[in-house]
Amino acid sequence: GAGVSQSPSNKVTEKGKDVELRCDPISGHTALYWYRQSLGQGLEFLIYFQGNSAPDKSGLPSDRFSAERTGGSVSTLTIQRTQQEDSAVYLCASSFTGPGEQFFGPGTRLTVL
Amino acid sequence: GIQVEQSPPDLILQEGANSTLRCNFSDSVNNLQWFHQNPWGQLINLFYIPSGTKQNGRLSATTVATERYSLLYISSSQTTDSGVYFCAARTGANNLFFGTGTRLTVIP
Q: Is A36 left (phi over 0), alpha (psi -120 to 50) or beta?
């Protein structure tokens, strides 16, 4: 079956602009995660969705970051008023259940000029 | 959160050689995964191994949960094995905590 897909694969934006990143999890997976990978910080957790429960937002670095998951499937990560330190690869993962094995998408490389 | 440490940070091997990568974690875990990040940045699942031993072709992994470490073995290495290997662990929290990776270079 299809894996986790993300779009766009690359995004270049100017400082201060808003961006939206999209994630399509594996069909049937109830849990969805966003992580980001940057040179200075490694791989770090951002936010977690499980079914219809309230998301775990504990990893979001600032209130400029938000995410939603519509219909228990597709998720969008929004970064408002982007800053240069937001430049990173944003990775989405999904798992069949919360504790289960996580599978990652190819990522979106965000560059903020 | 849980601390995950990987060693060595860098490893250079001749094609055909064997290697062992280590992952230490600071707390008991309910999920331990090994990934290979290819040159295009994709994280490829290698093993989901919170405890015990698994094998998949030339790769195998062992997690000793009581001693808080996991090992990834690569036998008869090939140039396509090059890349960064990540260990990631979870305790009771929802997310995985990643180590800083082992960069493997296999030379022909």
A: beta
Q: Is the Cβ of B56 closer than 8 Å to some Cβ of chain A?
A: no
SS3 B53: strand
With contact defined as beta carbons under 8 Å apart, do B34 and B61 qualify?
yes
Minimum CA–CA partner of A39 in chain B? B100
Per-residue model confidence (pLDDT) at position B75 = 97
Fold of B4-107: Immunoglobulin-like (2.60.40)
CA distance B94 to chain A (A): 7
| Domain range list for chain B | 4-107
**Confidence at residue A6, expressed as pLDDT on a 0 to 100 scale:** 98
Domain-wise residue ranges, chain A: 5-112
pLDDT tens, B44-66? Answer: 999 999 999 999 999 999 999 99
Residues in B touching A48 (Cβ below 8 Å): 94-95
Beta carbons of A107 and B42 less than 8 Å apart? yes
CATH of domain A5-112: 2.60.40.10
